Structure formats: C-alpha cells, structure tokens
Structure to design on (137 residues):
C-alpha cells in the first residue's frame, strides 16, 4: 500500500453544538456546515487538506448504516483518512488490510461526493480510512 498524503482529520463529537462552540466560536476556526446535520468542515485550516468535526451519529451511519455506535465497539474520538493514488488502490489496500488480519468496518464504497473509501477501527479507537478523493489530486 502506498499512502500519498493525509487527506482528512476529523474529530468525532457526541455533542455537535458544544464542539461548534469550542472550535468555531472560541478557537475561531473557519469551519462551516449546515447546523441541521452538525458536520463542520473546512479546507482552509492551515496544515490540512480537510479538517472536520464529525457528529458521532454520522460516523456510526457511515461505518455501520445506523445512527447508533455499536455498544461492543470502542467509541471513536477521531477519524484520519489517508489518500492513495486511485480507486483501484483503495481496493488493493482493503485486500492488504484483510490479509494482514484487520477487520474492516465496511467494504470499499463510493460516497455521493465522489470519495472512494474503506474504513477500519484502529487499536487506539480511531476510525482510519484509506481513500481516493479525486478533487484532492
């Protein structure tokens, strides 16, 4: 597997309003997003390609298809996504992860915004994605 760069860092929050208060109002980060879905993000935070504050319910939906995080899984605090060269490399990375004994949270899939991604839960409790985001290349 050949990682080209870190594409996304997203903090995972069980309380989007409280996180908005800290990251937007207090720290002044240039995060935007619809308050109805709670996901805050920016491509303008220096040192990152994409920085986000991801509601736990959305992370659960993305990984398990349900708004509740499974009680038998470590509660994640962060998501880190690493980009590879192309769509085929995402599947190759997924195959390599499975061969190495890692359990995937979901198979490789294409999200509505064009990202192709596979995710796993790290030993530290981080959601780790291997992805290809065309707009970042």
């Amino acid at each position: 597997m050949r990682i080209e760069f870190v594409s996304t860092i997203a903090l995972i929050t069980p309380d989007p309003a409280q996180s908005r208060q800290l990251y937007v109002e207090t720290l002044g980060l240039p995060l935007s997003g619809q308050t109805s879905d709670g996901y805050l993000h920016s491509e303008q935070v220096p040192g990152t390609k994409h920085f986000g504050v991801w509601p736990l319910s959305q992370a659960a939906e993305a990984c398990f298809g349900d708004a509740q995080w499974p009680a038998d899984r470590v509660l994640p605090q962060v998501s880190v996504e690493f980009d590879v060269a192309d769509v085929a490399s995402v599947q190759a990375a997924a195959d390599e992860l499975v061969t190495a004994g890692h359990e995937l949270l979901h198979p490789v899939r294409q999200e509505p915004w064009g990202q192709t991604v596979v995710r796993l839960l790290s030993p530290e409790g981080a959601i780790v994605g291997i992805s290809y985001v065309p707009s970042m290349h």
